[in-house]
Each structure stands twice: as structure tokens, then as C-alpha cells.
Amino acid sequence: MKSHFFVFSMVLCLFTCESKIKPSNIQVVSAMKHVMWKGELQGKISLDTIKNKTGLYGLGPAEYLRGELLIIDGKTYLSQVLSDSSMLVKKNDQAKAPFFVYGRVNHWTTEPLSKSIKTISDLEHFLDEKAKSLSQPFIFKLKGTVDKATIHIQNLPKGSKVSSPKEAHAGQTNYELTQEHVEIIGFYSTKHQGVFTHHDTHLHTHLITTDQSKMGHLDTVSFGDDMVLFLPK
After folding, report:
1. H helices of 39-172, where?
2. Which of 1 and 32 is assigned the larger pLDDT?
3. Tell me: the pLDDT tens digits for 86-109?
4. Among candidate residues 61, 95, 62, the one with its CA nearest the CA of residue 76
5. Is there a contact between 61 and 99 (Cβ–Cβ < 8 Å)?
6. Cα separation of 25 and 119, whole Å?
7. Nearest-CA neighbor of 182 among 96, 82, 89, 85?
8. Residue 163: count of CB within 10 angstroms of its CB
């Protein structure tokens, strides 16, 4: 009888315990496609209007596509291009964004990132499986070392008009990172392509180095073996 009960419990868990990820209460302001195709570059939200900063995470571009924005646990960072090889990262609670996604997480579960997960594509496939039973977006983060990574900062020339993704990315500056200790904030959704993720992915991620000297949109990465994944509890 006990063995039958154990088997029943295991089967039940397969259906009820498939995902331990808690959906995040995500808020979205405007949409990426409005910036790319309609040229709506002006700030649609001033980040100082988000009053409750406890456990707050968010990301998006700076207004007029002249920088990148990241909120980590209530602290707002703005990165801007200085040159092809240097950038300025500073705290700026009053920055504005043409589109932005944010939410709150106060409790996390942690697990070492599998050594088989090396790229953003690997991570997306892993999260797709992890979140099969979820219908809502969620926030995640990663802490550890990246062996290599490419991040970018939007740097649209002043006075530019935008009516396509190609025009929106004019002036984008890429930066290469090697053996950096970082924190990566990501938003996952299968229903927000063109809103806060690009049309070909379920992820939007920004990276900041531990010393806060470099920050931008994460394009490519090779994760180090010490990377830890944080999921909302």
C-alpha cells in the first residue's frame, strides 16, 4: 500500500510540480514595435514615477535611443556611449524610456546554471522547458562570470527619425567583455514579442558588471562555470 501511495504521489507531482517559477507581476509601458516602426522615441515613462522600489527590476532603452536602462532591486542605472571602447554608467532615477518593462521579485530560488548551458539560446531553451506550465511572463537573473559577452548601447544621432529597425539601430555601439563578473537581469515571455522582446526570442536581458563600470543590452554570451540562476519563488 505504501509503495502504491508513493507512486501516486510521484505522478501527482509530475502534473502539479512541473514548474516552481512564480509568475511575476509584469508592467509594460508602450512597446518596442512603436519605437522601431512608428518612431516614437520620446520618453513614455519617467522611472522616478515608479514609487515602490522594493524588489523592483526593469529594463529598456533610454529616450531617443541614446542609452540603456536597468533597474536592479530598486536602483536605476543608465549607460551611455562615450566612444567605441568606453561608456559611462551612472545611477539616474529620473531617466525616461520610450518603452519599458518592470516588475517586482522579493524572494528567489537559486540553482547552479548547468554547465551545458553556455549561450543565450541554450538559456532560452532551458527556460522554455522550465516554464511550460506558465502562461505569464517572469523575471530572472544570473550572477557569476562570463567568459565572453557582447553588449550594446543604443546611440542614435540627435535629430534622427526612425521608421524601421535598421534606422532605430543606427549608431548602436557594441562592447566586448572577457572574464567579467556580472549580474544579468532578464524578462521572459512567450506573448510579448515586439513589445519588450524581439520577434525571434522570448528573452530580453541586460548585463551589468559587478563594479558597475559596464552595462548594456546582452547580445551574445559564453557563460562561465560558476554562473548561478535566480528564479522568482
Report:
1. 120-130, 165-168
2. 32
3. 999 999 999 999 999 999 999 999
4. 95
5. yes
6. 27
7. 89
8. 11
**Cα separations in angstroms, 12 against 3, 135, 171:** 14, 20, 53
- The 10 Å Cβ neighbour count of residue 23 is 16
Which grid cell sits at 124? 532560452
Q: Are 188 and 105 in contact (CB under 8 A)?
A: no
Q: Residue with C-alpha cell 539560446?
A: 121
The residue type at 180? E
Report the alpha-carbon distance of residue 89 to residue 212 in Å, rounded: 7
How far CA 153 is from CA of 10, 118, 219, in Å, comes to 48, 23, 11
> What's the CA dihedral at 191, 192, 197, 203 to 10 degrees?
-40
User: pTM for this structure?
Assistant: 0.89
- At position 132, the amino acid (one-letter code) is K
